[in-house]
Amino acid sequence: MLTGANILEFQTKGYTILINGLSEAELKHLHDEADTLTNYLISEGYDIINDFGCIVEPWSCGFLDGSSDYNMDRDKYSKIRNSISWNNSCDTVQASDIVLSKYGSTWASLLLQQQVYLLNEQFIIKPPFSLLSSPFAWHKDSDYYQDERHRQERTVACWTALDTVDENNGTIEIKDFLGNQETICVPAGSIVFMSDQLLHTSTGNASSKFRRAYMTQFSSSPLLYQDGQCVALAIKCD
């Protein structure tokens, strides 16, 4: 559970870390989803690095049918999103509950101090022996928006280690609001909450195994283009 100390750290440093924030069942569910999507893309002949830049978005990778207006409708989003693991009869966890309730209405709303909307979600998959080909450049999440209005919108990213991460297998490095730099080494199931204004990077994977992470992003209001279309998702979390 996030504490008052976590909230203060997020406000003053731009990030905070919750060790072992997911239950074993939740961690396994997201880990299995990462493998399902990765295996699907590989079976279709895609290269995770060259074709996707290590970023596998459930809604745009071709696995899900997102033809309906799922991006603003909670019920439609949940039905389609949960279908990634539809064939696992032993799984009592639903992805939509983890994303919208735990990440969204519990954690993100606490850090942003208001109602939040799911903005984006993605798995970050770094293949083995990809030290030189899988790092990300230093950036702030707000840098990716073309519209200045969107850059002014405060958002929070919830970066979750689905495998234990360290300097060897590809983790994130942070330069906080106070000028300090930290390399994040945490066990699987831990979450790093980051402000859209936080400068950070992601290192390459030199290990012999895949390294999986999952990231959700939340905004305090829907991010829309001038024509009213969503930038990505705009699912209200409550």
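(the above was protein one; protein two follows)
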Amino acid sequence: MACQSVESRYSCGAVIVNISSIEAKNGPWSSAAYSVSKAGIEVLTKSAAAELAGHGVRCNAVLGWTDTPMAEGCDDALKAQALALMPIKRPAEPHEIAEAIKFL
């Protein structure tokens, strides 16, 4: 239904940016609901991108470990594991995610 609304309201050049998480790919057992919701966002983004591309609407999802209050509550071992996989070896700042979205 949301895709139908976008299709009828937006013209070429519109952009939809959703927020996802690495948890969509390999969520720990302790956050199943969060992981499933983020996986759903990724599938929705891919489906919307395919459906709306012909109308000139781009759909993207942005993800990344971000330094937020939610991230502060994560297990230290999980943080260390995530940081080891990051090229910059630190979480993103919220303004950096905002800049990526602005670019898209």
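Reviewer note on protein two: The mean pLDDT is 84.
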